[in-house]
Write a structure and sequence with these properties.
DHBP synthase; eleven-stranded mixed beta sheet; 11 strands; about 210 residues; alpha/beta
Length: about 210
């Protein structure tokens, strides 16, 4: 456990977290929504360890967090204009985009049906780790069926020794999930309304958006 409010501990913790992720291990990190448990997005074994730690199956694929706008270009089949508009408006922040992933990528995030859910979080500790390591598969830091962790201590109580490094960024505040927009079809669809209102998505795109 590293207290990221202390500059020295933060540097040490980020270095330890990056080493752990490179070694295929799990880390807990703060985000702008709730605490997440993450690993190397390109390691199938690490993703399976993440799902096992949560007690969850591959039927609910793990999202991927990125540390910059440009990272998305290497991860998806193509970036439509609607995705660019939403990224410019809401990243970093509480908006997740579902897009067809690049077929050349060797990753196994679960039953994705050829898609990937991407987000850039608005949290300095998360962004520093993502910029140091690269894209990470990150899910909420909790056991399946339990409330999402609002602190590193909550996450440790649920996930324990299955996680190698805990980055403590303080309480996460009100646990609000990201809004999820599916851009895999001709018409954008909001699969889940969360931190970003549907009306704000529609305003940026200049059209009505479908909701599920």
């Amino acid at each position: 456990m590293f207290d990221c409010s202390d500059p020295d501990a933060r540097l040490e913790g980020l270095a330890a977290a990056a080493r752990a992720v490179r070694a295929g291990q799990l880390v807990v990190l703060p985000t702008d929504t709730v605490y997440g448990v993450g690993c190397d997005a390109f390691s199938g074994a690490a993703v399976r360890s993440l799902l096992a730690a949560k007690g969850r199956g591959p039927d609910m694929p793990v999202p991927v967090l990125v540390g910059s706008w440009s990272t998305i270009d290497g991860l998806v089949l193509g970036v439509p204009a609607a995705a660019r508009e939403l990224i410019e408006a809401f990243w970093p922040g509480g908006l997740s985009l579902v897009l067809p992933h690049a077929p050349s990528l060797a990753w196994d995030l679960g039953s994705t049906k050829g898609t990937v859910m991407l987000r850039m979080p608005l949290h300095p500790v998360a962004l520093e780790l993502l910029r140091e390591f690269g894209p990470m598969a990150v899910s909420s830091a909790n056991k399946s069926g339990s409330p999402p962790a609002a602190s590193a201590q909550d996450a440790m109580a649920q996930l324990g020794s299955s996680v190698s490094v805990y980055l403590d960024g303080g309480p996460s505040g009100e646990p609000v999930a990201s809004t999820v927009v599916d851009l895999t079809a001709d018409e954008p669809r909001v699969l889940r309304e969360g931190a970003v209102p549907v009306a704000a998505v529609a305003e940026v795109l200049g059209r009505e958006v479908l909701t599920v």
